[in-house]
User: Which sequence fits this backbone?
């Protein structure tokens, strides 16, 4: 398949110009027309900046990195070259040979006098690494902070996770990706196990300052902040290229990437190609994709075929039909696991990072994504996407309008363990919750495919009713624990507020 290459025009401007031509207007090349274009482009830039909560930064060099085979060596090389500080943030670090290789590299730099800071997620790390592993890092001089463990002061706070995957070194080089640290991403060629498919980027230039500050924002949530003297400003970093990009640092409840994704889906005129590990789109985003496809935009979505939670696989597929009926093309990856989170639109706009297309990433997590507005980089992304399609199976509707998909999932990912089980579970739960909520409130028209979800939810409630009737203690004990936890949390928080009030009155 060939790609139509356009001049290096920003996505937002090319979209508007094509829309005007379709309406019978022309964009003039005279001085007046150019001034109008400049003003229109400035307004559009403001719209993108507001949606993303991130300014457009010029003067950068960006390198596309595929899988662990390209990402991990680049990360370790940057760590090895560090002279001042290393900032590392990862949702999961496994205590395996890969995780220990990174731990050894970080400890070695800390012993050289480099300031090494590492953020790990409490839930993401459960069962992945031992206390001894983290203690060895701390003993070796690495400053380790754990994001959002359960605590009385915030009974439901543990639902928010730090899902970011980033590395920044000396304010000179930064990495943003979907990769955690573990053997799964490297695979085991000696045993015929392929690596997980994932995508990251390397950044040099003024945008590294925003990557550093994104790390510092989360670091400050858990203790003393990073000294300002260690955080360079964008004007203090030399230009490294001519690429323009945004560093989109998502925090809980902000939905910055959702706003940006919806804006791009609304404005795309030719192509919108998406890759996602745990897709469970909200109705508003689904409608934006459907509207784009109906307008003739080539909308494609690649998702994993493999799953470590077999029960949720049919729930994930339940979301395909509305997209397919609108003309969106859906593909399932045939490898062990597709973990990448990417988007590329109209050959001029691209996003790479940690954000999945589901409510947990959009609203509940700390996420980090890089948005590049550059024709050459977007072209690389599109070429990589087309190569990925050669290892994917398209899901279609047959003549009876039934979903046709491979009967068997690729099982190697399931055998290797559940690195992304939480995200997939959240995606499945969200899809069921959306359907059940719509059924009870009548706030939207239910799709016929959602009948399967309604049956599934109904069976769950029926089973719970039977358990409650015959074995009430089975549900009573967990409910008692939950209520006790909430009670303790509320009382503890009230006590802290009372103490704070007394302290203020004394002063």
Assistant:
């Amino acid at each position: 398949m060939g790609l139509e290459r356009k001049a290096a025009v920003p996505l937002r401007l090319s979209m508007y110009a094509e829309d005007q031509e379709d309406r019978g207007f022309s964009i003039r090349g005279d001085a007046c027309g150019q001034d109008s274009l400049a003003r229109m482009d400035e307004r559009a830039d403001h719209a993108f900046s507001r949606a993303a909560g991130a300014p457009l930064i010029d003067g950068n060099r960006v390198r596309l990195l595929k899988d662990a085979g390209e990402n991990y060596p680049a990360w370790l090389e940057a760590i090895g070259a560090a002279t001042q500080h290393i900032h590392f943030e990862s949702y999961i670090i496994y205590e395996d040979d890969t995780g220990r290789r990174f731990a050894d590299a970080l400890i070695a730099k800390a012993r050289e006098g480099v300031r090494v800071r590492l953020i790990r997620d409490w839930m993401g790390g459960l069962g992945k690494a031992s206390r001894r592993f983290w203690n060895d890092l701390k003993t070796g001089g690495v400053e380790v902070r754990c994001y959002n463990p359960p605590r009385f002061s915030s009974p439901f706070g543990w639902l928010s996770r730090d899902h970011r995957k980033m590395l920044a070194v000396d304010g000179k080089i930064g990495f943003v990706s979907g990769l955690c640290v573990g053997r799964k991403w490297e695979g085991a060629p000696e045993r015929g196990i392929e690596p997980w498919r994932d995508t990251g980027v390397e950044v040099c230039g003024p945008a590294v300052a925003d990557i550093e500050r994104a790390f510092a924002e989360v670091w400050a949530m858990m203790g003393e902040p990073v000294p300002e003297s260690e955080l360079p400003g964008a004007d203090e970093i030399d230009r490294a290229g001519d690429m323009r990009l945004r560093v989109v640092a998502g925090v809980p409840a902000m939905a910055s990437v959702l706003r940006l994704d919806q804006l791009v889906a609304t404005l795309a005129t030719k192509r919108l190609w998406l890759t996602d590990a745990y897709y469970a789109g909200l109705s508003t985003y689904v409608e934006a994709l459907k509207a784009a496809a109906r307008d003739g935009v080539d909308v494609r979505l690649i998702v994993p075929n493999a799953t470590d939670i077999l029960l949720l696989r049919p729930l994930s597929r339940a979301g395909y039909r509305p997209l397919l009926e609108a003309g969106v093309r859906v593909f399932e990856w045939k490898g062990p696991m597709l973990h990448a989170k990417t988007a590329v639109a109209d050959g001029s706009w691209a996003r790479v990072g940690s954000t999945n297309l589901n409510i947990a990433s959009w609203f509940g997590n700390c996420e980090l994504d890089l948005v590049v507005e550059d024709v050459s980089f977007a072209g690389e992304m599109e070429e990589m996407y087309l190569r990925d399609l050669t290892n994917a199976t398209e899901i279609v509707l047959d003549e009876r309008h039934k979903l046709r998909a491979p009967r068997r999932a690729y099982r190697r990912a399931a055998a290797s363990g559940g690195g992304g089980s939480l995200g997939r579970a959240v995606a499945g739960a969200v899809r069921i919750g959306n359907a059940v909520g719509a059924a009870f409130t009548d706030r939207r028209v239910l799709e016929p495919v959602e009948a399967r979800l309604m049956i599934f939810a109904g069976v769950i409630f029926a089973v719970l009713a039977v358990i409650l009737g015959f074995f009430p203690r089975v549900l009573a004990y967990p409910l008692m624990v939950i209520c006790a936890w909430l009670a303790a949390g509320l009382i503890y928080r009230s006590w802290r507020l009372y103490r704070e009030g007394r302290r203020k009155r004394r002063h």
In short: Confidence is low (pLDDT under 50) at residues 4-9, 19-29, 411-417, 438-447. Residues 471-507 form one domain.
